[in-house]
TrEMBL record:
This is Helix-turn-helix transcriptional regulator. It comes from Teichococcus aerophilus. The keyword Transcription applies. Keywords: DNA-binding, Transcription, Transcription regulation. Residues 11-108 form the HTH hxlR-type domain. Gene3D superfamilies: Winged helix-like DNA-binding domain superfamily/Winged helix DNA-binding domain. It comes from the Bacteria. InterPro entries: HTH_HxlR, WH-like_DNA-bd_sf, WH_DNA-bd_sf.
Length: 151
């Protein structure tokens, strides 16, 4: 996969995939969303090789999903925290996890809970205009050219 070409191409799905990275990157973002921030914590939780973790953290930082912050001068140590783009990616992970639990052999997700009500959040993607969950209605793709012609 030519991620450089995809990351600058016309398709937002391809651009998003190129920036969000591979499965390791998605798991790093998942753990960052759960409060993991330090290299050794990621390495231990994920069982990932240090060179791979270094590469993924560097890419996620370069693509603006994580921010690298120094928390110790002596010795120099950094933590990785979600940026706005990284926080905006968390619902994608929740929906993927719900899909995986339903269609890929079960399993449990950490529960996402509304901090004000205490109710469990059920991750779904809905049409902002009519509130219908995607996947429950027939959809068709309109090309960018067609959309411009309709405007």
């Amino acid at each position: 996969m030519d991620t450089d070409a995809l990351s600058h191409g016309p398709c937002p799905v391809a651009r998003g995939l190129a920036r969000a990275g591979d499965g390791w990157s998605w798991l790093i973002l998942r753990d960052a969303g759960l409060g993991v921030a330090r290299f050794d914590e990621f390495r231990t939780r994920l069982g990932i090789a240090p060179n791979i973790l270094t590469s993924r953290l560097k890419a996620l930082t370069a693509h603006g999903l994580l921010e690298k912050r120094r928390y110790s001068e002596r010795p120099p140590r950094h933590e990785y925290v979600l940026t706005e783009a990284g926080r905006d990616f968390l619902p994608v992970l929740q929906v993927l996890g719900a899909w995986g639990a339903r269609h890929c052999g079960g399993g449990t997700l950490n529960r996402l809970v509304d901090a004000e009500t205490g109710h469990t959040v059920r991750a779904v993607v809905v049409d902002q205009t009519n509130g219908a969950p995607l996947g429950t209605r027939r959809l068709r793709m309109v090309t960018a050219e067609e959309a411009l012609a309709e405007a």
